[in-house]
Amino acid sequence: MQGGRRWMGAALFMVVAGVGCAADRGGEDAAGEVASARAPVEDEQTRAANARFAVTVVHEGEMETRVYDGLGSQHSAFAGLVVPGATGMWRWEEGTRQVAQPDCGCVSEQMMEGAEEPDPKACLTDRAVMTGRFINDTTGESWAPEETTMAPEDRWWEVSMTPVGAVGSVGLVTLCVDSYYCGAAHPGVECEQLAIDFSGGEPTQVEVGALSAALGAEHFEGLKLGLEEDVEVEPGDGTLVALTPSWDAEEGRLFAEQHYAFGACYACSDGEWSSYTVSTYVDERPLNAEVAGERPPQGLRDLLSASGWEVRAVSPVPRMAVATPAVD
Q1: How far does the signal peptide extend, from start to end residue (predicted)?
Q2: 3-class DSSP state for residue 323?
Q3: Do residues 290 and 277 lie in contact, with contact meaning Cβ atoms separated by under 8 Å?
């Protein structure tokens, strides 16, 4: 028995010594492994509860952005379009400013009085025009299109800016400039959809085609467009000019309605986009998953699919942006 006790004591000493040596050898690595083993494992339900998504909807003609968790519980709401970014939530806001523009009636009087070269700058009058910008309520930074500061004095003009939605951290705003050179045959409209990426340190404008791949010319073979559907377009002339995100209840994710514009005569223009164009739309086009982000958890998918809302964005919100206060 004494021999047995001596053997067990020696074995125990070796085990304890071995553990001590292992701890000495492992150092911080061993401590990290222990801490990792003791850390709670976040299950799917907990991950969904901790996740946040900025959901932009159009309700009774008004746009609103609501922050939900992955289970479908609402945490806050913002008026208008708000896009989550790396440095905070970027809110679209609109206003007006006064600019000097020629009064075309005054220019016409110059022409009637025999002026060979009318002087629009002699007929300037102040008018209110629209402005728009994205502002980060966390950092105070802002981004505005150059049309917000334009001030040509040789023609009458106005700007319209329409927030559309978002794909991930890319905000979408459609901008059109309507202008008229006094005495010209007709006015003109130039439209563009702005796609502003807030996923980095600075806002960056990206191409619409980077968010949803354009269709090839073969898709538009034999297509006739225009108000009377009598304008036969050149298939290769189609340009993807804009996207409108929409929720697909069956798939449980966002898709895009793609807007294509084709060149046409001025009188053929259908008013859907710029002058000298006619348009067509293609529904349920897939979005770039790398930009749009992962599909939301089941709870939020179920809420959106059953809601009947006109959903324009379902964007993952970075953790640091969650605490941004709601906007009235």
Answers
A1: 1-22
A2: coil
A3: no
Rounded CA gap, 207 and 131, in Å? 22
The predicted pLDDT at position 42 comes to 64
Instruction: Count how many residues are written for the chain.
Output: 328
In the chain, the largest separation of any two C-alpha atoms, in whole Å, equals: 131
The CA distance from 167 to 198, in Å, is: 11
pLDDT of residue 166: 98
Identify the burial level of 208 via C-beta atoms within 10 angstroms of its C-beta, where 0-12 means exposed, 13-18 middle and 19 or more buried: buried
Tokens 């958890």 identify what position? 297
Q: Which residues of the chain have pLDDT under 50?
A: 1-26, 34, 37, 39, 323-328
Q: In what order do the strands lie in the sheet with 277-285?
A: 239-248, 253-263, 277-285
- The Cα–Cα gap between 163 and 312 comes to 10
C-beta separation of 180 from 187 below 8 A: yes
**How many angstroms separate the CA atoms of 324 and 170, rounded?**
18
Report the predicted TM-score, pTM, of the whole model to 2 decimal places. Answer: 0.83
Q: Find all residues with CB under 8 Å of 6, minimum gap 6, and list them.
A: none
List % helix, strand, coil for the chain (3-state, nearest 5).
Answer: 25, 40, 35
- Confidence (pLDDT) at 27: 53
Mind listing the pLDDT tens digit for each residue in 209-267? 999 999 999 999 989 898 888 888 999 999 999 999 999 999 999 999 999 999 999 99
Q: Name the DSSP letter for residue 327.
A: -
Q: What is the pLDDT of residue 184?
A: 87
Residue spans per domain, the chain: 2-38, 44-321
* Cα radius of gyration (the chain): 30
pLDDT at position 28, please? 54
